[in-house]
Amino acid sequence: MRTLTPALRGDVITGIAVTLVGAVYYIATFWIQETKNIVTPRTFPAIVGIALIVLGLFLIGQAVYRSRKLAEVVPAGAASASGGDGGEVADSGATDDVVGDEPAGVVLDAPEEPKSKQVVLQFALFFVYLGILIPVGFLLSTAAFLMTMTSIYAPNRWIRNLIFSVLFSVIIYVAFVFGLAVYLPVGILG
């Protein structure tokens, strides 16, 4: 029986949560009133719900896949430490791809997984974003939300975060309002 590392277990739990939120979000679209247009008010929320379900299932699958790969690598690493033949083959193939002076058999650490406090903060920020979307408006609330979210992961790159947040918000707004004729909340700008 394979056990998941704490990081992979967190991915599975997050994937389940995202899948459930997507399912509830998709089911809620059935209460949106239909129109006779090709693109109805239900279309975009349904796409978001389906995308959340797919992404949640993908996150679960990725965690399970990484867990299986980790279970396969651990016995191979144990064999190389004891001087088995299987470890020598794996080491000789791995050293061809290694750049730099790293000795054979060195395992590089993966990037740090998001901390649970950051995940909780992100969910809280998302719900704040949902709460201010209509009164503040799409452009300002989305730009502020994206600026805050990107600053969590890259706090020293605030200029890049600001440019991305503003450009993304404006492009999405223009695409929906002028391209699809779907009006987004203007809030205090209107």
UniProtKB/TrEMBL annotation:
InterPro entries on file: DUF1468
Protein's UniProt keywords contain Transmembrane: yes
Signal peptide: none
Swiss-Prot/TrEMBL keywords: Membrane, Transmembrane, Transmembrane helix
Protein name per its UniProtKB record: Tripartite tricarboxylate transporter TctB family protein
Domain (DUF1468): residue spans on this chain: 13-185
Bilayer-spanning residue ranges: 12-32, 44-65, 123-146, 158-184
Origin superkingdom: Bacteria
Pfam families: TctB (PF07331)
Organism: Brevibacterium aurantiacum
